[in-house]
Amino acid sequence: MKPRRPLKRGDRLTLISTSLWGDPDSYPDALSLLREKGLEVVNGDPAPPRSGPFSAGDRTRSEAFFRALSDGSSDAVLSTRGGYGAIRLLPHLDLCPWNRTTLPIWTGFSDATNLHVYLWNRLNTVTFHGPHLRGLGSSPESFRWFWEMVSGEKTAGSALPLGRAEVIRPGSVQGRLLGGNLETLAHMAGTRWFPDLKGAILLLEDVDEPLYAIDRAFSQLAHMGVFSAIAGLILGPFSGRSPREDDPANNVVELLENHCPPDIPILSSSLPGHDLPMATWPMNVDVRMIASASREASLVLAESPFQET
């Protein structure tokens, strides 16, 4: 399932706090940028009172997310901020009557990986890995790449922005682009929502995690056979960590030597993660990953993320 079409002037974008609660008015720069594109921006969060750090209780939050995606009034849905709490929505979302043949453009990252994975499994829908409202106004490039993606400027044959890219292991492969935040994905292991990653090009990124925690998450995925099943691997930023005496390696790439088979091509990109600027990439679409022996890297859409272009 794909969103019906890209965004255009006059469309409605609904903000929703799927993780920690965020007040949209706290991010005036992002709101202004969206409105300058002619979008009607509305707040889809439940009415107060809030529940601790969340906009409401888990069931109410899940119903608000379902409603934003399913009632037909929104052309796009954007997570207000990340943090924690989306995983608590999943069993409640299982009870919702998902019966639409298309969904709005849904964008989020980090903790929203839980919801990307849920939507891939439940509806096999295309989603968008990109900044929350909180980050859209923090970097001109982040907003530009977001708008290029959701407005349809990027279509089949278009290269996705990589920023600073490095070929770690050469190879050229094609597969569905899946993944997101490493720790969030690892925490879903063993649940009924964990995605089928066979033949996928897997994106992994994280922030503020020491190397031992990254190694633990890599080990979890390796023990499940994930790295043996994928076609290729993209490493986003792994930022915000300080060296420790108990670090099991010098860097993330060294850690992968123990986990990822040598025939899996790997490249790194500075853009799909918690660092700024951040790109917006469509997920659950076919892409061609080219990591050449001459150290040139590209990631090209093999299909449009929209039904109509």
Automatic annotation (TrEMBL):
Pfam families to which the protein is assigned, alphabetical: Peptidase_S66, Peptidase_S66C
Coiled coil: none
InterPro entries, A to Z: Carboxypeptidase_A_C_sf (IPR027461), Class_I_gatase-like (IPR029062), LdcA_N (IPR027478), Peptidase_S66_N (IPR040449), Peptidase_S66C (IPR040921), S66_fam (IPR003507)
GO terms under biological process: proteolysis
A single MF term (Gene Ontology): serine-type peptidase activity
Keyword field: Carboxypeptidase, Hydrolase, Protease, Serine protease
Leader sequence residues: none
Catalytic residues, chain numbering: S110, E205, H274
Domain (LD-carboxypeptidase N-terminal): residue spans on this chain: 23-130
Positions of the LD-carboxypeptidase C-terminal domain: 174-288
Annotated family: Belongs to the peptidase S66 family.
PANTHER family attached to this UniProt entry: MURAMOYLTETRAPEPTIDE CARBOXYPEPTIDASE, MUREIN TETRAPEPTIDE CARBOXYPEPTIDASE
The protein's name: LD-carboxypeptidase
Native species: Leptospirillum ferriphilum
